[in-house]
Design goal:
The protein is an alpha+beta fold. The protein contains twelve helices and ten strands.
């Protein structure tokens, strides 16, 4: 909900993602470490890459929508998480108390028309500085980046403490749910969901960015059916690593490890214990007695190749799934995951993220698969 937003970050994130597994790898000794944490509803916060208290707020906000917009359908935590991921990266860098209060408060650039953050239209203060600390101009506030005037219209008391604040995670989440639901949208309808997100920020690039997160969270919330046999062994081994951090060059047949320096985004894998994309696949297949080469491009040649032209429908659970700049050239492959079925994969996506379930559409350049089982 930020009129000042510049939408350049998605391209940067995609760039980091697509180069995440191409470099030569020198592995150090394996070291074990797990990231845990979960919130209600059986959702694994660590696997989702969301702080547990923020995930609780999203679950709470979605569950309360019936009391405020009874006609709304399809409001769920994934929708709220998709918005908050783009607006504040789930209140990254802040502390969230047991009651949901966020410190220090999250405020956007001053909307004075100066061009900072892309804002060229001045928006005069409407809250006397109550929420944004600015008595002259507005600033977007809280993890959902409401303008104060908008929050006054839609704000709700999500945690029942008698106060309504955009700087409280529960209040902000239920308020965002009310705003997105409008007069009673059906958010199970993709077109209505897109329209709701567009009211939040009138940029279709923003809508696509938010939807990519919602799709990933939807996939994460669906427990995959694990086949029997060697394919099941591979998938179970990979699924058990959910929540472990991405480490540039990390992971081998023995499990997670520190990696190497440095990713295009600047991550020094030597400081992170975890997996990169091909390290995860190497480990999972080793559990089934199959020893893969180290890089994604090399792994494409390790079994029976399934061309991109055959479509995702040609894959079966346990197949390696690839992404590349040129779908007909294995040398251009930059990312690999393990196909789970139903359009989903388990993978280590990029620096700063954890091993997780993603929709195949999370990356734009599907390059086919390989069957080794």
């Amino acid at each position: 909900m930020k009129p000042w937003r510049k939408l350049g970050c998605l391209g940067v994130l995609l760039f980091v993602a697509v180069v995440a597994c191409t470099g030569p790898v020198l592995l150090s000794a394996a070291a074990r470490s797990r990231a845990g944490g979960s919130a209600g509803g059986g959702v694994d916060a660590a696997a989702a890459g969301i702080p547990a208290r923020m995930l609780t707020a999203y679950l709470t906000g979605a569950s309360q929508i019936g009391a405020h917009v009874p006609g709304c359908k399809g409001m769920r935590w994934q929708v709220l998480a998709g918005i908050a991921r783009v607006e504040s990266d789930h209140a990254a860098g802040r502390q969230v108390s047991a009651g949901g209060d966020i410190t220090p408060p999250i405020t956007g650039p001053r909307l004075d028309g100066s061009g900072a953050g892309g804002n060229t239209t001045a928006i005069r203060d409407t809250d006397g500085g109550r929420w944004d600390g600015d008595t002259e101009y507005e600033r977007a506030v809280g993890p959902f980046q409401f303008l104060p005037e908008t929050f006054r219209a839609y704000g709700k008391d999500g945690n029942g403490d008698g106060e309504i604040s955009p700087h409280n995670a529960d209040d902000a989440a239920v308020s965002a749910a009310v705003y997105l639901c409008g007069n009673g949208r059906d958010l199970t309808d993709r077109d209505q969901l897109r329209a709701a997100i567009h009211t939040y920020n009138q940029s279709w690039a923003y809508v696509d960015d938010v939807l990519s997160g919602i799709d990933r969270y939807d996939a994460l919330a669906t427990t995959p059916n694990v086949p029997s046999g060697s394919a099941g062994t591979v998938i179970q081994a990979a699924l058990a690593q959910q929540g472990l951090p991405y480490s540039w060059g990390g992971g081998d047949a023995n499990g997670p490890s520190t990696g190497i320096c440095c990713s295009p985004g600047g991550q020094d894998g030597r400081t992170v214990t975890g997996f990169d994309c091909s390290g995860l696949t190497l480990y999972a297949y080793a559990k089934a007695g199959i020893h893969l080469p180290r890089t994604a491009a090399e792994q494409a040649g390790a079994g029976r190749r399934i061309p991109a032209s055959a479509g995702v429908g040609a894959l079966v659970p346990g197949d390696l799934i690839f992404f590349g700049y040129n779908p007909t050239s294995d040398a251009s492959i930059h990312h690999v995951g393990i196909y789970l079925g139903d359009g989903k994969m388990i993978n280590a996506p990029r620096p700063g993220k954890s091993v997780r379930i993603d929709p195949v559409t999370a990356l734009p350049d599907y390059a086919g698969g390989t069957r080794l089982l």
